[in-house]
């Protein structure tokens, strides 16, 4: 018994004293003694497991997967089998005492290892290759492998050895306290803890060799083991030392044994004996073989040293972790076939887009993917403190302390200082990993669950902040260069990924019965959905009022490119998670059949693809409804409403789920009507925002809210009249702030209804309340009372409501409106509103506003305006100008574009039109030639806004651009109306004042100088901004991580950032400016200046097309209209003629205006159908997918295919007419960089380009229409390429940034259709000219002076898959498509069938034999040409694309290609090529001669001999090949100047021929038959 008591005292986690009384869960009072408390703390047990004492030993619990519980008590699920203790079959020693202890009640900590809700799949295997590459010590790889195997076998033996190891360890002094953490993992832990910080690694190894339910070993943990030197650390521990040494002797590999024997033999030999042995080896072996062996040995040493060097270099480059943590971490194993953006160790991966990421991006994305996966994998071991910051592991070895690791001066092995809350990993390390924090959310202690959730919320908030603080568009390879930089993008991706199963834990925690846990869980979900960050973005979007529609935030990816569009990127966007899989658990799924199919595993799969979709599928909406109905706290209610808003912004499917959730909307409305308190205002604001977002998504929702009275209920504050400004100011600061925010949301809700044509008649009731905010205030008073921001926010929104009402105005001179049920606004209400707006315009000359602008620009230092931003006032002016612009548009006749006809002229001019124009002129909005001074004494308003646009604050820049846009649009409309009125009544005079004269002559004409400067400013901005938006998309996604908005994981927020929004707003304003200057085309400028301006204009329009997002479809349409105008095409034709004249290739022939008009119409139709069309499901697809209850097969994680068999329509769809929100999915914007190549890269009808089709459908375009599109595309591409070759423009053209491989590929796609394009004379000349330009670019890239390479240092938008020496930069197979060889085969078939040796066609085929084309593509092209026997149809070398040097240098060293050359030689295919002087024959002679006679690489001697033997055997059989052999021998490598003039090389001296004959003789290796042939050749020479 004494022995038994000692053993019990040594196991603190299993106190089995006689006084122990088991406690029953659910009793009224839970009495826990001091001794028992140590057992419970840290014992993390799954919810639903009872502490009741079992009557007998049973098996460990097995989870049963059932449909996810909804709005039930947390103890209802997941359901588990009966709890029991763990039974070890090999644990008995015959005394029966341990068996008696096993029958006592289960403790919480004994159940901790089994607390996993979903049993994880075991890893397939451990990939130790990368781990071994990271080893930094001097041991050989074989020794390390032996140590790994010994550790593994040692764990197996100890696990099966029963009490043997336990008994030997029980005497260790460290054992008594160590067992409190995990009694089932005590075999090795205490001893190893005493010798280093390796608890996590050893524990994982025990788990890997033991039960599959424990966490498995990963390569990073094994790396920690090896780096810390496990073997040396445990040398003095007898039980482990004997096992390690014995296992090492058993598992040494053959290579290490041989090496050990050799070293032992060398130690026994004397120096003289070693020298003698070396001399014998030198005599016996051939010198060439000795060189080869020495070189191989040097390579091995370099590889061993380079492995650690590579890791350290990457650590410096990417800086994924803090410097101290890098030493203890490495790149863990990563599954390259994973379809997710994050690493996974379980089976919860989706196979939906497994190949799309790599296939569409090739080697470029493959290398980036490797970098990204390593970054995410490194997050696995990052530890975070409770406030979310990364904790550095500062372990140091203290001398004289037995090698014990000390952390922060405390011994890590003291059990009293350990963290009891750890469930896995290293219990002595500070902080928590993400997986540990997620596991902690399933503790039985509510405080631990809340603690873990607070930690997760903190780190997610910091991750969101960190992502937003980075610059937009940083490539993954260059994202992290600072040593102390935390990689928050990777942290976000790992946390939202499927491996931590965060979504499952959050859904379970939301069902908790402790309010603190539920609140903490709601905050985590709010962070995951990035609700606050997204709302900030949408708030900025609302202020701009540039877009009528908002956009859904569901994550998307690109569909893979197809051959019918020439493999061009930029396919339709598709949802990460199929919309039909976003299924909340409903009552119809409770039946037995559905219960067996719908599993939690399916929910996890959807959650891994799209976090919000997974939450909705898991039934979060009914749970949130339940929480709202139970009278939650103000903080919880606000979080719930924020979550609902985030879900409503996700997708139309989620909106429908919210609307169909019974009583959810009604509950929100009901809680809004409760008593008004300061605490309830945030929830009220969120409630109005939720209904507004739901109404925006579809007109039916808005109409339903109006009919059931929800709109009236949610906007009743708008009817409360505020008597005066002083009364509002005295209401209190907090009350003013919240009430103004609530009123803004209510006005936005009303504005949504007005957009649909509803609630227009409410204006008369609400106008009295708006009067206070529509009138301009006293700025000085607002500044003194610190209420400027609150006041102008309401004023801004009120004017935006008036702008929406102005849209409902009928045209003033037609008075016709649509015959639908929508309401219209009356013109009788317009006059007073315009007068109020004019007061704001006159307020610009107020001295206080002038001082505020001067202080903002840095020219005024008045202390009154310190810390006051001018941005809120800019938003008001933007709204006022937009309202005026909309009113003026309704005055202009609808058919006024026909300015040359007699219709459309204004019969009379409303009084407010000249009044607005005079106020703009008087108040210094523009500068006019001859004006003496501005009313404010400073510059014009335009000048001040341009200065504010250059500021770094994004909101100020956005507000200034919106103001500029409003000023220009108002001025354009006023000028147009006055011009129309003058045309109708020329004698009408307004006044004789200077302002009236400017108004009569035209405001734009008088301010032409300032507007031209404004245009030049934004042209430069467009040229420098487009690449930022283009660099966001990666892996065919808007961001590398799943989630919402910022949750896409792109640096800086990606497409959901203020930076991207600013670029798009700039682009829209620039297009309007260009349209304005097109309207004023009477300016006469010198030819050189006009040419420069035209080039800048075209380049800026191309840049705007690259920045446009899904909401900017109309901007792209306007850009295409500008780009494809006849006078612009005339300028491109001029550039073409100038280029052809300089190159003197052939006589230029200009196109006629009728031809250019046809080109304009053809290209406009093609680009709109190809890039701007929407994808809509066909009727058959809707019927097939109408079933909502789709499930997954058991054991499979692949989701259903998202079919592409869809109809495309360029007209407005029903959804576009009935919704104010658009989707990222089912459209193609933003455009890819090579979008303008589509006319020459499409081989089917562009309307259906990129859509999969079955055999019954035929979308092939009419050959004549296709030929016209190709001809127009060739002309347009040649024009922009010729223009980009001119150096007169300072800004680089986007055309120059398109990789050359895409341009060459597009020319090949044309020839797949037929020879029609080469049969027409002009198009043939254009095709050849394009080949010449691309040849020049190819030569520039080869010599390193191309613009692509010089600009590549700024941002890498070009090919990233180049070799280190840039030898092979034409990566057709890697960048375009992995099956590019099939494309070449089809092209060669066309070449052999219909070309009849056409030289232009032959040039295009021969480019694939260029030396700088990647080797697989060159080999495929050569083999296909050889098999088709058309090598002789290729043109001579001097007629190929690019200079001859590019085909000949560097010398070919690829063994497969050299062998293919010899095979073609031997087969006789080269015979006709030699007779015709084809480039194929020249390449064979050059590369074979250079390799055989001039290559001195020792490791290639065998290949050289093999080639020579094959050639000599062929010569012996085919005497007519004697001439070819003579040419091969006589060929001398030409100089660079000779390469372009001849093919046969320079003449040889006799000595050179003799040397070559010696090489042939040596290559025969004594073969008498071959030596005879060599002698025959020598005699012939």
Describe this structure as you would to a colleague.
- This protein is mainly α and 1581 residues long.
- Helices cover 55% and strands 2% of the residues.
- Helix 45 packs parallel to helix 49 (1058-1079).
- The longest helix is centred in the first third of the chain and has 32 residues, at 287-318.
- The chain is globular, with a radius of gyration of 38 Å.
Task: Put the structure in a nutshell.
This protein has 1581 residues and is an all-alpha fold. It contains 73 helices and nine strands.
Characteristic key phrases:
1581 residues; 3-stranded antiparallel sheet; 73 helices; 9 strands; globular; disordered N terminus
User: Could you tell me the strand content as a percent range?
Assistant: under 5%
The computed structural class is mainly alpha
Any idea what the shape is? globular
How would you write the strand order of the largest sheet?
A: 1-2-3
Distance between the termini: 105 Å
Number of strands: 9
Main beta sheet: 3 strands, antiparallel
Helix content range of the residues, please?
Answer: 55-70%
| Average pLDDT over all residues | 74
Kindly provide the radius of gyration, computed on alpha-carbon positions and rounded to a whole number of angstroms: 38 Å
Q: Count the helices. How many?
A: 73
Counting copies of identical and different chains, the oligomeric state is single chain
Poorly predicted runs are: 1-6, 8-56, 63-110, 123-252, 305-362, 395-420, 585-594, 899-904, 1079-1086, 1178-1213, 1245-1260, 1345-1365, ...
